[in-house]
Design brief:
CATH architecture of the largest domain: Alpha-Beta Complex
Strand content: 15-25%
CATH topology of the largest domain: Creatine Amidinohydrolase
Number of helices: 17
Number of strands: 28
CATH superfamily of the largest domain: Creatinase/methionine aminopeptidase superfamily
CATH class of the largest domain: Alpha Beta
Radius of gyration: 25 Å
Helix content: 25-40%
Strand order of the largest sheet: 4-3-2-1-5-6
Largest sheet: 6 strands, mixed
Structural class: alpha+beta
Length: 589
């Protein structure tokens, strides 16, 4: 199979020689800089076989390299074997990023080709500023990708979001006036879905519509795929938007619209392609989109729905964990894949379930040492009656988006597994208990989760927390809790994950994850403070905890959390499962 990828890389090199290009960069995103692209834009996977969500490829005459971060190192080495493409590590102290590496190999003035539809304006600027001659070619791989999928078009429907489309448009037009812009082009798919209160399934696990939205003071144009629309739900949605004065135009005409627009156009260079910025000419005002910051702060109605959603999701999780424990204890053969399918079945029982929010990570033993492990559907490992099993999963619901990780002892565990399990839970609790001044960026509270691990000379390579949307992307920015220096402040109404971990290659992995809501903690003469409220409702298994590693206040937090879990879920479970959960949530210490 890997010979296929080697052949594709050679085909790209042949194209390069014919065009006089010194290098080609293939990014992992799509024309909207989506983290999870549709099949058409999974270009890195098609070219190299690497299936991770984050990874960019550079091909020169004598080298092919994949740049990816610590989450995917082990996976990348395995998947790239035999392809002729090698791993370049990022988010490590010794990292050499793509522009710097290209300068060292090719020197300034080298001709670099990119797919101009999938290259952000910011990325193009960085390459030009590095002294390269940039050649932008829309759909660059089309020449060698003969059976490339088309752009998906799925049913588009309206949702309730606690704030109307008209209210959001009015707010956005106020932002235009303040910025001195005549119009704004929204390219990020989650931002468009948020403004219009629409959802679809154009991208797996992401309820978004592939489109662009151009909004001015007296007009709004939605550039969306609408050819051969026969779906009554989509037709109803289109009729409603047109009734609100929103003009529908073909997706492919976005460049023409920008070229014809004569006013001052607000573009976000992080999400708009260099192809579209070029079409806009010199009229662009480049600044971050205001929508990202606005939608990360959930409104009161959304928060109410999200709390209820997590209770229903917690019921599904507890049913699953009960089934898993009893099945393995009874000696039944349960594979990682079967466990993932079973959890999906429990979630599907929830009335407003719309699908998973990402591909379930169901990993036993050494598989869990890969933070983004891909559970095989065939010949999946069996979950045995000892050691640790990790399940990272989530659901999309009309009432919210969930994301939860539970690591579960399946029986006897080694002293190392017990210590890792306890310390990661300690790290999770310490962040969950954090109190901090309003406006503090996430990078400044990241250490709250890492300190218990650092004291034991342990660490993890991924971020501690990511934002989560309201029936939108399971990863939402710009706020985050990680070591990267990012000034985005934490404010009330944000939903963030709390997910420290420890990974021992070839042995096991531990991660404990809840979603938390940023809420008011009070005001004193020293200012206004914030704290976190757990949204996720599901117990942590306490059977193997080493209580000597936990402080009194951490045990008190865990006991209080478990009391809340049982209060919320106990009456919603069958009697047998409820008794089991009552035992699982008994106070410890």
């Amino acid at each position: 199979m890997n010979n296929l990828y080697a052949e594709r890389i050679e085909a790209l090199r042949s194209l390069m020689r014919g065009r006089g290009w010194d290098a080609v960069i293939i990014w992992s995103g799509d024309p909207h800089q989506s983290e999870y692209p549709a099949e058409r834009w999974k270009q890195v996977r098609w070219l190299t076989g690497f299936t991770g969500e984050a990874g960019d490829v550079v091909v020169t005459a004598d080298h092919a390299g994949l740049w990816t971060d610590t989450r995917y190192f082990i996976q990348a080495v395995e998947q790239l074997e035999g392809t002729g493409c090698v791993l370049h590590k990022t988010r490590v102290p010794e990292q050499v990023l793509i522009p710097e590496w290209l300068r060292s190999q090719l020197g300034e003035g080298a001709v670099i080709a990119v797919d101009s539809l999938c290259t952000s304006a910011a990325a193009a600027d960085e390459l030009r500023d590095s002294g390269f001659t940039l050649v932008g070619v829309p759909d660059l791989l089309n020449v060698i990708w003969e059976d490339r999928p088309g752009i998906p078009q799925t049913s588009i429907f309206r949702i309730q979001a606690g704030e109307s489309r008209e209210e959001k448009m009015e707010w956005l037009r106020g932002e235009l006036a303040e910025r001195g812009a005549d119009a704004i082009l929204l390219s990020a798919l989650d931002e468009i879905a948020w403004v219009l209160n629409v959802r679809a399934s154009d991208i797996e696990y992401n309820p978004m519509v592939i489109s662009y939205l151009l909004v001015g003071q007296d007009f709004a144009k939605w550039l969306v795929l609408k050819e051969d629309v026969e779906d009554p739900v989509t037709e109803e949605t289109f009729d409603a938007l047109q009734g609100d004065g929103i003009e529908l135009l073909p997706y492919s005409e976005v460049g023409l619209e920008l070229s014809a627009f004569e006013g001052r156009l607000w573009l976000d260079s992080a999400t708009v392609s260099c192809e579209l910025r070029e079409a806009a000419g010199g009229r662009a005002i480049e600044a971050p989109s205001p929508v990202a910051r606005r939608k990360e702060q959930k409104n009161p109605q959304e928060i109410e729905w999200i709390r209820e959603c997590h209770i229903r999701d917690g019921v599904a999780m507890e049913k699953f964990l009960y089934w898993l424990e009893k099945s393995v204890q009874a000696g039944k053969t349960v594979t990682e894949w079967e466990a993932a399918v079973k959890l999906g079945q429990y979630r599907a029982e929830i009335d407003d379930y719309q699908g998973d929010s990402f591909e379930t990570i169901s990993a036993y033993g050494k598989g869990a040492a890969l933070p983004h492990y891909i559970t095989p559907s065939e010949d999946a490992p069996v979950i045995e009656g000892h050691g640790l099993y990790l399940c990272d999963s989530g659901g999309q619901f009309l009432s919210g988006t969930t994301d939860i990780t539970r690591t579960v002892p399946m029986g006897e565990c080694t002293p190392e597994e017990i210590r890792d399990y306890t310390l990661v839970l300690k790290a999770h609790i310490d962040l969950a208990m954090a109190v901090f001044p309003a406006g503090t960026p996430g990078c400044r509270i990241d250490a709250a989760a890492r300190l218990p691990l650092w004291k034991s000379l342990m660490n993890f390579g991924h971020g501690t927390g990511h934002g989560v949307g309201f029936f939108l992307g399971v990863h939402e920015g710009p706020h985050q809790i990680r070591q990267n220096l990012d000034p985005t402040p934490m404010v009330e109404g944000m939903i963030t994950s709390d997910e420290p971990g420890i990974y021992r290659e070839g042995k096991h992995g531990v991660r404990h994850e809840n979603l938390v809501l940023t809420v008011d903690a009070g005001t004193s003469e020293f200012g206004h403070f914030l704290r976190f409220e757990p949204l996720t409702m599901c117990h942590f298994d306490t059977s193997i905890l080493d209580l000597s590693l936990l402080d009194k206040w951490e045990i008190e937090w865990l006991n209080e959390y478990h009391r809340t879990v049982f209060e919320n879920l106990g009456t919603l479970l069958d009697e047998e499962v409820a008794r089991w959960l009552h035992e699982k949530t008994r106070p410890i210490g």
